[in-house]
What does this fold into?
Amino acid sequence: MTPDPARGTPVPSREANRMDRGYRLYRRRASRCRTENQLNRIHIALDNYMTPAEVRHFAAVLAGEVADSPSRRWIATLAESMPINAVRPVEFERRELLKGVTHYTANAGSPAEKTLIIGFSGIHHRLMSPTAWLLDCLNPMLYDVIVLRDFSRRGFALGLPGLGKDLLEMLSDLAKHCDPRAYRKAVSLGTSAGGVPAILAAIALELDRGISLCPSDYRWYAAYVKALGVDEQSYAAVLASRPHPFPELIIVSGALKKDDLAAAVALHAAVPSQLWKVRNCAQHGILKWHIARGTLRAFLAKVLDQSLENQEARGATLSARWVVTSGARSLAMGVPAATDSVSFR
Amino acid sequence: MSEQPPEVSSLRLAILEALKIAAPGALNDEARKTFLATGSNIVFAELDMDSLGEMEFCIAIELSTGVTLLPSELAELASTDGVERRLREKLDEAARSGGEASR
It folds into this structure.
């Protein structure tokens, strides 16, 4: 709440009003649910969209419900599993640019001082985790996040409604809504079915970095694109192109997840990239695996190759050499030695 | 005498569609075809289905069949055969009572 100078009484901020409206909408929708699955469906959708501030808002309001209320149990679980779960001086706000394009940004800071993360979600319309987990790790003064969701579950092969007819058109059109070049640094981050599009986006948009977590097999993706009637050769051409400077590409897979690893190895073989195998991880949901171990922030800092909280001097990003040596241990960043082996191509 | 392939039930199609959403990487095209063509059984423990996947599976089943299956039931049912059997039971029960299948 912010004080109203005219009356001397607190008035709700625009964002607080928006969260109140969101909560009332949730109550109306939840009251119509006749089955547990219907309520789960709403909760999953909210997990996919909510900001950390919205999670705390819902948790505070729903804390008044009886302890075994499904709504209270859902939000309490989500809030308790947030990596930081603390109020920040400025918070991420959620804006829908288009259907399937969500922009998370604080009403503060200049893009020139921020890193833009363009997220390509997987089949569950999330970046392998509730969006609030990811946002909670990031300083809103230093990061903007766009999450792209393909509700047709076609891995962005046919673009998004209002944003191109295929992935490459979609990327071109996306830049009109949010220009990566306006940012200090721009990174693509794709999970699962969004993994290959993230790599293609990093090259096509000439981003600084492309991160692909447990991507689909590129060969399968190319065949799928072709089956949808899209020219897969244009995708192959992007993958084969070598713009200068070439983005740093990171492909991550659980070391013990054989099918994921095979897909990651195939993609690694197709494009100059680093392949990171996460030791002891047999899960596809690699971000969830990290949250369970309390290492999500360290992992994100490592794949982004920069601090999540503080501005580093321009050009002072960590070197590839550091990544190799960090496989053993990094005390400076507090990064656990979860990335067992790293290979370059 | 040539054997006719078994009729693909709408329930098996619904289960397969739900699996595509719940565990997208777990079944390749060949496995999906085999599932429909031979009536083979898929054991959930062999899939990479996490708690979200289980919820998505049950939501997809409910949307396509109208039958409520809860994530907590999946461990007991253990496989696609178990799910198909339970769905048939609930649908039969609903048909007998003239009520909704979800109860």
